[in-house]
Design brief:
Number of strands: 11
EC number: 5.2.1.8
GO molecular function, one term: peptidyl-prolyl cis-trans isomerase activity
InterPro entries: PPIase_dom_sf (IPR046357), PPIase_FKBP_dom (IPR001179), Trig_fac (IPR005215), Trigger_fac_C (IPR008880), Trigger_fac_C_sf (IPR037041), Trigger_fac_ribosome-bd_bac (IPR008881), Trigger_fac_ribosome-bd_sf (IPR036611), Trigger_fact/SurA_dom_sf (IPR027304)
Subcellular location: Cytoplasm
Enzyme class: isomerase
Length: 494
């Protein structure tokens, strides 16, 4: 087998592979010898089929199998022998001429194919001792804990049926049918819907028109859907809702005590406060971690400047750009609304894609040298977390992870990245700084503005590019529902 490099330009490589016809013929003869005693052909005793007849019957299919094996196995072996790692799966090109293909399968012509790929750039790791970061921490006050506990208590507040008119703060139970141009629209009908007046859960103007109604009342409400309403068929349109009020209930007083905790499935009010404090600590801890990670990534970005594989950058950019356009389409906005142009936005996101790929390669190299690994237990826990998000679809999701190697890589990547960050935190200079809640949130809001519209990165299947600049992503804002009522899932999330 001849391996000839035909292109070495930057990170791009092209390799021509030539396997002489004689070698292919020899391999075919070996396979034919193996099957000689196994095949059954009418007119011949087992093991007595002439080689020429075997070749006539099985030669072409055996050669096709050989070709498939070679193009499946040799690229990895060739790269390994060259000491190279491909950024993505190498592209393989073979002849498309039928006559030439037939000659190859008949072992009458050399088998040739080319490999085209980009190599991962060599990365010489630098000392991280000079990296200095500030970890912002806050003390959580009892007042903040009590404030959050009160919100929990209000969400579990009891309501008592009243005979008078509904006021803000009262809960109404109702049936309604929404119509546009006299026709009921999908998602605009509900029965036994509960709404606390003044909660702002329904579209503007809906709740205000229910103030003063009594149980048993029938009322038609007229509202206009906002121009930026997610459901395009309803955005900006006037709608009517035929409402039948079933019950008006007044809120009971809220008391934070063991009885309340018991209703929530918690043993005591003190334990409830502990849980709430832990949740607040976790939320602030995530914020602190995100900002700490961004500091590390920013400094690594300054330390490492090297050419990145275009194939990885393009894939990263395409993922970001697709998300950006989806966000704009859902919001009904344009690039001009975001004080930019499409051309400038493309430039910014291309730069972001390059940064993410570069940092991904650096973090992967750091993790590899440090022996960072993702255990099977960690993978199982992460997959289980995914399953919990899609109840009833567990079987399909598990099958997806089994059949798609890239899916498992997308789960492993963020775990690996966080473990590399944990490793770096043991190596770099970390200074804790006490800040107030307002300082932590205010600074984060400033940073978030700088990262506006930067979509979360797509994970790469390539091992070297698994770690990504996740610190630059942002969570999508919750969207309004097509119907005026939020569904139970939204209510529980609140």
């Amino acid at each position: 087998m001849q391996v000839i490099e035909t292109l070495a330009e930057g990170l791009k490589r092209e390799i021509k592979v030539v396997i002489p016809a004689k070698d292919m013929q020899d391999k075919m003869n070996e396979r034919l010898a193996d099957v000689k005693d196994k095949v059954r052909i009418n007119g011949f005793r087992p093991g007595k089929v002439p080689a020429a007849h075997l070749k006539k019957v099985y030669g072409k299919s055996i050669m096709a199998d050989l070709v498939n094996e070679i193009v499946r196995e040799q690229p990895a072996a060739i790269l390994s022998s060259r000491g190279e790692k491909s950024a993505t799966q190498p592209e393989i090109a073979m002849t498309e001429d039928k006559d030439e293909a037939d000659k190859i399968l008949a072992a009458e012509q050399d088998f040739e194919f080319t490999l085209s790929y980009e190599v991962l750039p060599p990365i010489e790791l630098k000392s991280v001792k000079g990296i200095k970061v500030t970890r912002e921490v806050i003390d959580i006050s009892d007042d903040e804990v009590n404030e959050q506990v009160l919100k929990v208590a209000e969400s579990a507040r009891a309501y008592e049926t009243k005979t008078g008119k509904a006021a803000n703060g009262d809960r109404i139970t109702m049936d309604y049918v929404g119509k546009v141009d006299g026709e009921a629209f999908e998602g605009g009908t509900d029965q036994g819907a509960e709404l606390v007046l003044g909660s702002g859960r329904f579209i503007p103007g809906f709740e205000d028109q229910l103030v003063g109604v009594k149980a048993g009342a029938e009322k038609t409400i007229t509202v206009t859907f906002p121009a930026d309403y997610p459901a395009k068929n309803l955005a900006g349109k006037e709608a009517t809702f035929d409402v039948s009020v079933k019950e008006v209930a007044a809120p009971a007083d809220v008391e934070i005590n063991d009885e309340l905790a018991s209703k929530l499935g918690i043993e005591s009010a003190d334990r409830l406060k502990e849980i709430v404090r832990g949740q607040i600590e976790s939320q602030y801890g995530s914020l602190t971690r995100q900002k700490l990670k961004r500091q590390i990534l920013d400094q690594l970005d300054e330390m490492y400047k090297f050419e990145t594989p275009n194939s990885l950058v393009d894939a990263e950019y395409n993922g970001i750009w697709s998300q950006v356009n989806n966000d704009l389409a859902q919001s009904g906005k344009t690039f001009e609304d975001e004080d930019t142009t499409e051309e400038k936005a493309r430039e910014e996101y291309k730069t972001l894609a390059e940064r993410r790929v570069r940092l991904g390669l650096v973090l992967s190299e750091i993790g590899e040298k440090a022996g960072v690994e993702v255990s099977e237990d960690e993978m199982q826990r992460a997959i289980y977390d995914q399953l919990r998000q899609y109840p009833g679809q567990e079987k399909q999701i598990l099958e997806f992870f089994r059949s798609q190697p890239g899916a498992a890589a997308s789960i492993r990547a963020p775990i690996f990245e966080e473990k590399v960050i944990d490793h770096l935190l043991t190596e770099i200079d970390v200074t804790d700084k006490k800040v107030t809640k307002e300082e932590l949130l205010a600074e984060e809001e400033g940073e978030a503005k700088a990262e506006t519209k930067k979509a979360a990165p797509k994970k790469k299947a390539a091992a070297k590019a698994e770690a990504t600049d996740a610190g630059e992503g942002e969570e999508a804002a919750p969207k309004k529902k097509a119907a005026p009522k939020k569904k139970a899932a939204d209510e529980s999330a609140e």
